[in-house]
Amino acid sequence: KAGVTQTPRYLIKTRGQQVTLSCSPISGHRSVSWYQQTPGQGLQFLFEYFSETQRNKGNFPGRFSGRQFSNSRSEMNVSTLELGDSALYLCASSLEPGGHYEQYFGPGTRLTVT
Amino acid sequence: AQSVSQHNHHVILSEAASLELGCNYSYGGTVNLFWYVQYPGQHLQLLLKYFSGDPLVKGIKGFEAEFIKSKFSFNLRKPSVQWSDTAEYFCAVILSGAGSYQLTFGKGTKLSVIP
């Protein structure tokens, strides 16, 4: 079974631009979560989607948004990029939402903002 | 809000040494606990998890962890480390029974094993 895939793997953007990252979950998984990983803050939860609905959102500004499609694929968007948005963005999928289902992580998208 | 603390930022051990990585969480309710590992250049992957039952849980690659509820701790252990255990280790917690699935991670502990 193919794992979680994320595209693109690397991205360089300029301050003020916007960016869209994509995540394809493991086949059959319906829940997708997004995390930001930086050396200073570690792994921080961005949001979680299930059945095309955002179920939970972390403590990030409104410039960070996401959506989920009917095939469970998910995208996240960051508008008006800032230097501090440079990070590894990880997507994780699980069969269902809830604490008893293991989350499987993708390789991440490395975003560099210049 | 729940939080997870990992006491050691970087641990350096020689091969065959024993390992214990500390993890404490702050939340008074029922939690599910996890240890994830990130090998250099690889995905985060689950080492082990605790939901309920025996507080001593065994994971992959010889790792185990003990849940001590009274101490709000979930320390990771391995009796004898190998060079291939060099990686970053993350402790994480989720509220059990909550309506959503939000993992809260510790800042991670980098383990370097010297051959």
What would your notes on this structure say?
The complex is a heterodimer of chains A (114) and B (115). Chain A has 114 residues and is an all-beta fold. Helix content of chain A is 0%, strand content 53%. Chain A contains no helices and 11 strands. Chain A has strands at residues 5-7, 10-13, 19-24, 31-38, 42-50, 53-57, 64-68, 74-78, 87-94, 104-105, 109-113. In chain A, the strands form 2 sheets. In chain A, strands 2, 4, 5, 6, 9, 10 and 11 form a 7-stranded mixed β-sheet that branches. In chain A, strands 1-3-8-7 form a 4-stranded antiparallel β-sheet, with no helix packed on it. In chain A, a hairpin with a 2-residue loop joins strand 5 and strand 6. Chain A is globular, with a radius of gyration of 13 Å. Chain A starts with a strand and ends with a strand. The model of chain A has no long low-confidence stretch (mean pLDDT 94). Chain B is mainly beta and 115 residues long. Chain B is built from no helices and 12 strands. In chain B, strands 2, 5, 6, 10, 11 and 12 form a 6-stranded mixed β-sheet that branches. Chain B has a 4-stranded antiparallel β-sheet with strand order 3-9-8-7, with no helix packed on it. Chain B has a two-stranded antiparallel sheet with strand order 1-4. In chain B, a hairpin with a 5-residue loop joins strand 5 and strand 6 (44-50). The termini of chain B are far apart. The mean pLDDT of chain B is 92. The interface between A and B is medium-sized, with 28 and 25 residues.
